[in-house]
Amino acid sequence: MASLNFNSFVRDVVTGAIDLDTDSFKMMLVSVVPTTTHKDTWTKRSDVTNEVTGTGYTAGGTAVTLTVAAVDTANDDVEITCSAPNWPSSTITALAAVIYKSRGGASSADELVCSIDFGGSVSSTNGTFTVTPSGSIKFQN
């Protein structure tokens, strides 16, 4: 399965539950790649299964910054990119990452944004685990 945006994300942006410019976001690592079924049914962080565990990794992941670009009038779109988080001195293995809006409380309140498929297992052994998102979320007219 490829990277995906959760269907609930679009509704959350449209209704104002997620503000891409001002809200806080986190990235968590998972040991199973979300599927199209998850795209349709997962809406909150509490729905995500198989979060990784390991040395140097804290449950819930780490903060990331989403950046909203200016309107591209040539391509009629707006792109949202994500910073590259890392987990130093970690021993972990992950297949994917999930980005979500962090409300700072219960996982049942945190709205999902997207998942990033690593294309296979990625590991660190007492080293730095870094996720470098290569694409963007794009709203296009």
Question: How would you describe what is shown here?
Answer:
The protein has about 140 residues and is mainly β. Helix content is about 10%, strand content about 40%. The chain has helices at about 5-15, 35-40, and strands at about 5, 25-30, 60-65, 65-70, 75-80, 85-100, 110-130, 135-140. The strands form 2 sheets. The chain has a 5-stranded antiparallel beta sheet with strand order 1-7-6-2-3. A 3-stranded antiparallel beta sheet has the order 4-5-8, with no helix packed on it. A hairpin with an 8-residue loop joins strand 4 (about 65-70) and strand 5.
Draw up the topology in text:
Elements: E1 4-5, H1 7-15, E2 25-30, H2 36-41, E3 62-64, E4 66-68, E5 77-82, E6 86-101, E7 112-130, E8 137-140
Antiparallel strand pairs: 1-7, 2-3, 2-6, 4-5, 5-8, 6-7
Structural class: mainly beta
Percent range of helical residues: 10-25%
Order of helices and strands: EHEHEEEEEE
The total count of helices amounts to: 2
What labels describe this entry?
141 residues, mainly beta, five-stranded antiparallel sheet, three-stranded antiparallel sheet
What can be said about this structure in brief?
This protein is mainly beta.
